[in-house]
Amino acid sequence: MPLRAAGPSTDRAIAALKALLGARATDAAAVCDHHSHGESYHTPAPPDIVCFPATTEEVSAVLRISADWRVPVVAFGAGTSLEGHVNAIHGGISIDLREMHRIVRVSAEDLDATVEAGVTRLQLNKALASTGLHFPVDPGADATIGGMTATRASGTTAVRYGTMRENVLGLTVVMADGGVIHTGTRARKSAAGYDLTRLFVGSEGTLGVITDITLRLHPRPEAVSAATCAFESIEGAVETVIATIQLGIPVARIELLDEATIDSVNRYSKTSYPVAPALFFEFHSDSQRHVADQSEAVQALALERGGRGFAWATHLEDRERLWPARHTALYAALALRPGAQAWTTDVCVPISRLAECIVATKTDNAGAPFPICLVGHAGDGNFHLIYVLDPASRAELDEARRLNERMVMRALAMGGTCTGEHGVGIGKMAFLEAEHGAALDVMRTVKRALDPDNRMNPGKMV
Amino acid sequence: MPLRAAGPSTDRAIAALKALLGARATDAAAVCDHHSHGESYHTPAPPDIVCFPATTEEVSAVLRISADWRVPVVAFGAGTSLEGHVNAIHGGISIDLREMHRIVRVSAEDLDATVEAGVTRLQLNKALASTGLHFPVDPGADATIGGMTATRASGTTAVRYGTMRENVLGLTVVMADGGVIHTGTRARKSAAGYDLTRLFVGSEGTLGVITDITLRLHPRPEAVSAATCAFESIEGAVETVIATIQLGIPVARIELLDEATIDSVNRYSKTSYPVAPALFFEFHSDSQRHVADQSEAVQALALERGGRGFAWATHLEDRERLWPARHTALYAALALRPGAQAWTTDVCVPISRLAECIVATKTDNAGAPFPICLVGHAGDGNFHLIYVLDPASRAELDEARRLNERMVMRALAMGGTCTGEHGVGIGKMAFLEAEHGAALDVMRTVKRALDPDNRMNPGKMV
Questions:
Q1: What whole-number distance in Å separates Cα of residue B272 and Cα of residue B294?
Q2: Nearest Cα to B228, choosing from B278, B301, B294, B296?
Q3: Nearest CA in chain A to B350
Q4: What is the mean pLDDT of residues A176-189?
Q5: A413, A357, A18, A182: which is closest to B435 by C-alpha?
Q6: Residue B317 pLDDT grade (very low, low, confident, very high; cuts 50, 70, 90)
Q7: Which of A29, A237, B53, B213 is least surrounded, with the fewest CB atoms within 10 Å of its CB?
Q8: Helical ranges in B94-233 per DSSP H
Q9: ipTM score here?
Q10: Is the pTM of this model over 0.90?
């Protein structure tokens, strides 16, 4: 177990950090409180000090102070984490990377870019506007690229463009002892040594602090179309997704929303989708005819499975209303119940089991004493629940815990994973043994080897 | 440094292995010689004994014997390695996995399969014939899936379908102490813990022995077309590749062959391609119209860059002649010079630097006293040289070493990697420091943590 940073050594670390960074190191209560939590139900836990380094060298200096005084370190990005990753449960130093917000390099010729960890995905896409390229990984929140890398984020477009796992080419990482390493290269593929890039992608700050990221970019599609389709039943919607994937139709987005989610979105975003299970689609291609071919094929599949016809969002402005409506699902769910807090969870299963998993989960959920919204990146076999809880109610929290555990264990029994994209943090730690068995010991061996003092985001993940 | 297995303990390990496996453990000289090398120029090094385990449990028992007597272990698949990975340079136990050749499970609904490590890629694709699916990763040789996983192999189709990195979902691995772990799940994505799957993919047997692999499969494309195009200059050919990738045209294969390679292929495969730099293309889609759109777009790019027009291989039998001709390039090169041996090397660079890298490399090569063939998975920025050497000539080996080093250092200076797909083995070890810097120490830390006795393929990679 990590040491709770003892008072005197923490005080010395704080003094050293203030000497290093001046006003960019602060133990003001309001700042520490802001860095005590993400967007989740987990109990906030403030750090002892928050640092705002501006360079990899400064992060390295912070890590050396952490090593000198054996004080824990937690990396912090946009604060949109859903599983308590950024809560400083053993106190110590929160490293806020938002001062590192430079886009270091864009190479349109090579379809790649290097950005600092604090750059957000919308900031990056704005900077790419004139290049004909985009960075499609899209977890909903305007997260930092550093946070997305550290949690192996994905989102609505992963079915076509992959997750952060597929889209990170290389990293700069500050190790526990303050050493700086560079992983990967700008080559598209390499067989030269262990894949450290992929080891750090998804490591949630427990092995090192990521300070810059080299990303793959993608050509903006020449042709795009989007549509929504309501279904008679959620099984029909999910079966449409399964058939689409099995046929290899390269949909760019295929998102599932249950009727509760549609209802909450309509209220929150002033939209008027039919209150029924729905799929939201997007098709991308280098060719208009190919987009038409894809959408015709998917429409036929939907109609055979209880789809009530496609409503097209052909104009850019219509599409630009559609996806924000989808992305506000979390806030729309919260608005269902004033004063409520969201417990958001996700699982991912092999696609053939998705309908069964969702139907059984919805049956479980039917008697819950709070609203539950279901949204899913269904093309990946991944779906989310939002439990809209009264945070003061122990009974509701216990019920959410029970429902979450039932869903996770069902997903694992189907060959799936306890989290498709939110990460482990605090919230999913209890399930790693069930998912990984003896492989969890190998993860712990790697952790001890790279962070022998257990200072890097201690008490999380492994 | 690894221990060279001392005589007495090796003798005891041999006795224990024979007691365990009977005739499936042999120290017959002919068998040990067969397991002393792959298909490369590196000095053969026989193991002390070769084992043919049939199950993961037997591999685990072999590893426990290796641990008891501190004897090295080298995993062996089809023996098609190009960088000396399988040479038993410190003696010990060669584990030949060809007895583990079962296709454990195919799930057409989920587009995945689990196979034992000794299954070859052609065997797998034959077994998939009735499913409408295929496993597209295609390194040329009929390698085992275990070997392809261990070397992070790719090949002609990686530009569209990715490498083994993108196509392995999970693994069973026997660790140095004989413990068995399962990495990954059958879910398409996961954010649950360190990505051990990717850590073992490309680890070349230095961290554990892979015994089964869960793979992504892909729908066989509804529409396929293939073509060749000769060019006035190799620059024109490479510039066509670069433009194709930059425009995001989803070619399935885009292979570069220089005039020396075309000449050797014509002689060996009785083909009659114009003796000029050439591109070999393949287009895949779910739609015939999309294949037509892609090929028209690429033809236009080629014509603008000195392409002399496309020769189409529209019928299946024509395509089935085209790609074997490409895949025999290594044997065709060897046939240029009876008694010669091939030194095969590869690098990979950002696509914008590919033309410059190839032209400079060919300028270097022009004065070489032996034939050199260039073939490339150009869409990935990856190309290969085959030095066709007199193995008895120290001068030729020295010249090959000098040329190889110049090419690798040029690729690294361009932001590339010392090997795109062949792996490190013995042949590229000297370049890892230049490529990875301090990250190499992190790789070594991981290696020591997971294989503290340095028994897993010692003397390789890190």
A1: 26
A2: B278
A3: A187
A4: 97
A5: A182
A6: confident
A7: A29
A8: 121-127, 145-150, 158-161, 164-167, 196-200
A9: 0.96
A10: yes
Strand ranges for B62-208 from DSSP E? 73-76, 93-96, 103-107, 112-116, 133-134, 168-174, 180-184
Among candidate residues B272, B277, B274, B458, the one with its CA nearest the CA of residue B374: B277
> Distance (Å) from the C-alpha of residue B285 to the closest C-alpha of chain A?
9
Is the pLDDT score of A116 beyond 90?
yes
Band of the pLDDT at A322, cuts 50, 70, 90?
Answer: confident
Which pLDDT value is given to residue A327?
87
CA atoms within 13 A on the CB side of A417: 27
SS3 content of chain A, % helix, strand, coil (to 5): 40, 20, 35
Taking alpha carbons only, the member of A104, A105, A134, A106 closest to residue A121 is A134
Interior angle at CA B91, CA B90 and CA B94, nearest 5: 120
Instruction: Tell me the C-alpha distance between B69 and B10, whole Å.
Output: 7
Residue B460: Cβ within 10 Å count: 25
Q: Which tokens belong to A53?
A: 């380094």
pLDDT at residue B194, as a whole number: 98
- From the list A112, A186, A449, the residue facing B449 with the nearest CB is A449
Long-range contacts of A431-438 (CB under 8 A, 24+ apart): A431/B192, A432/A461, A432/A462, A432/B192, A432/B193, A434/A409, A435/B185, A435/B192, A435/B193, A436/B181, A436/B182, A436/B183, A436/B192, A436/B193, A437/B181, A437/B182, A438/B179, A438/B180, A438/B181, A438/B182
Q: Do A420 and B187 touch (CB under 8 A)?
A: yes
Among the partner-chain residues A194, A380, A462, the one whose CB lies closest to the CB of B193 is: A462
Instruction: Look at residue B97 in the predicted model and tell me its pLDDT.
Output: 98
Cβ <8 Å between A187 and B349: yes
**Mean pLDDT, all residues of chain A:** 95
Given an 8 Å threshold on Cβ–Cβ distance, is B195 in contact with A179?
no
Query: Which positions in chain B touch A435 (Cβ < 8 Å)?
Result: 185, 192-193
Q: Pick the residue from chain A with its C-alpha nearest to B221.
A: A248
> Would the CB atoms of B461 and A193 count as touching at under 8 Å?
yes
CA angle B462/A188/A174 to nearest 5° reads 55
Q: How far apart are CA A296 and CA A289, in angstroms?
A: 11
CB contact under 8 A, B183 and A218: no
Question: Which of B182, B194, B190 shows the shortest CA–CA distance to A348?
Answer: B190
Please answer whether residues A330 and A140 qualify as being in contact, where contact means their C-beta atoms are separated by less than 8 angstroms.
yes
Nearest to B387 by CA among B400, B375, B399, B376: B400
Tell me the three state secondary structure of residue B384.
strand
Confidence label for B3 from pLDDT (cuts 50, 70 and 90): very low
Measure the CA–CA gap between A159 and A253, rounded to whole angstroms: 7
**pLDDT of res. B316:** 80
Search chain A and give the residue with CA nearest B181.
A439
